[in-house]
Amino acid sequence: MAQTEKLILASGSPRRVELLAQAGIEAARLMPMDIDETPKRSEHPRSLARRLSTGKAQAALAAIKGDPAHAGSYILAADTVVSVGRRILPKTEMVDEASSALHLLSGRSHRVFTGVCLITPDRTVRQKVIDTKVRFKRLSTTDIENYLASGQWRGKAGGYAIQGIAGSFVVKLVGSYTNVVGLPLYETLTLLSGEGFDVHAGWADA
Ligand SMILES: Cc1cn([C@H]2C[C@H](O)[C@@H](COP(=O)(O)OP(=O)(O)OP(=O)(O)O)O2)c(=O)[nH]c1=O
Q1: What distance in Å separates the CA atoms of residue 33 and residue 12, rounded to the nearest whole number?
Q2: Which member of 47, 52, 79, 163 has the greatest number of CB atoms within 10 A?
């Protein structure tokens, strides 16, 4: 893919790389940023997604500071948060966390917030949070047990991945599907093109 401007994706998420590639954009460099993702006391999920996406982008900016190879680069970062009401669900690493999350999501609507942060070559910081509403069917004990055995919940916000088996749990979705997977493509490309990034440069080779 031919890309004129350089894009640093401050992420270690293969989903985000794939989503960008789907939209014909290839990151010149991947920089996974290990920041503290613990929510603050009574922090709103939207505020958490905003704070963490900005934190990842700022951490990447600090890491490339003074490196002339990255002087003209754009930096993009995102963070996805799943919530039921104001309750923030964890990014599940343990099976019991995933089990609790799935019991909570069963037969209900929840929201998925993805914060997107773009730092431009002149170091302007642009930020958006996109919100998608998702309704799950009522999950049976067998659904939950077998989903837990699949391992597809591991490392995912809210204990599920819509792009896998859990896509079959979704009764209704209002908003952006790619936002749930981890990077809202329409809004991200709008942000990039609004800041002078040529989003079409790689389309012929995508
Ligand atoms: C709800 C949902 C989340 N997810 C993923 C997207 C994110 O990778 C992850 C949420 O964790 P994040 O902290 O947003 O991202 P991450 O730690 O995986 O990657 P990064 O290096 O960019 O910080 O959950 C799905 O893949 N599918 C889904 O349906």
Answers
A1: 7
A2: 79
Residue with tokens 């914060």: 115
ipTM of predicted assembly, 2 dp? 0.98
Beta carbon of 79 within 6 Å of any ligand 1 atom: yes
Does residue 146 contact residue 99 with C-beta atoms inside 8 Å? no
Q: Give phi and psi for 132, each to the nearest 5.
A: -125, 135
Q: Residue 162: what pLDDT? A: 98
- Phi-psi category of 159—alpha, beta or left, where left has phi over 0 and alpha has psi -120 to 50? left
Catalytic residue among 79, 96, 122, 143: 79
For residue 79, indicate whether it is catalytic: yes
What whole-number distance in Å separates Cα of residue 100 and Cα of residue 144?
10
Task: Indicate if ligand 1 lies below 6 Å from the C-beta of 131.
Answer: no
What number of helices (H) and strands (E) belong to the chain?
6, 9
Domains in the chain and their CATH numbers?
Answer: 7-205 (3.90.950.10)
Say how many residues make up the chain: 206
pLDDT, tens only, 61-100: 999 998 888 888 999 999 999 999 989 999 999 999 999 9
**68 Cα: distance to centroid of ligand 1 (angstroms):** 30
